[in-house]
Amino acid sequence: MSYGTRVLIFIFLVIRCGFSKGEQTVVPAVYVFGDSLVDVGNNNYLRISVARADHPYYGIDFPTHKPNGRFSNGKNAADFISEKLGLATSPPYLSLTAKSNANKNNVSLDGVSFASSGAGIFNGTDERFVSSIFHFSTIILFWPTFYFSTKMGIGKKIGLKMR
């Protein structure tokens, strides 16, 4: 059995067994790290990127029927997990930091997606596209930046709850 198949089975079992209808699980937020399987649009905010999901066929089965940065025709794994937890889909990290975003100082307490399509777990995996995508080692560094800027933006009391 391939590694990817084992990961999908594990995720399915966690979702299936982790939530019963009789109990209410409180999950404050979903923070997503990964590649195209869970990317919700970070690559669309890169100026030069060959890995963009802004073509008409991406998102055709999504509720808006428009391209939305997901490398699928509808929802991806991160969307389904957030939905199952009763949370909104985590916005792309770069949408919160983009200069063109009028709401760039808004914080998302429901979570954020740091996932970027094409990100390899090893820095050499994506050598050909080094200038147009993020390495996983870079994606991981987005978390402390987000955490501390959010903590400063919403106050120390709420920021301490964000773990």
Automatic annotation (TrEMBL):
It comes from the Eukaryota. The keyword Oxidoreductase does not apply. The chain crosses the membrane at residues 133-154. One of its GO terms (molecular function) is hydrolase activity, acting on ester bonds. Residues 1-22 form the signal peptide. One of its GO terms (biological process) is lipid catabolic process. Pfam families: Lipase_GDSL. Keywords: Hydrolase, Lipid degradation, Lipid metabolism, Membrane, Signal, Transmembrane, Transmembrane helix. Belongs to the 'GDSL' lipolytic enzyme family. PANTHER family: GDSL LIPASE/ACYLHYDROLASE FAMILY PROTEIN (AFU_ORTHOLOGUE AFUA_4G14700), GDSL-LIKE LIPASE_ACYLHYDROLASE. This is GDSL esterase/lipase. It comes from Arachis hypogaea (Peanut). The lineage of its organism: Eukaryota, Viridiplantae, Streptophyta, Embryophyta, Tracheophyta.
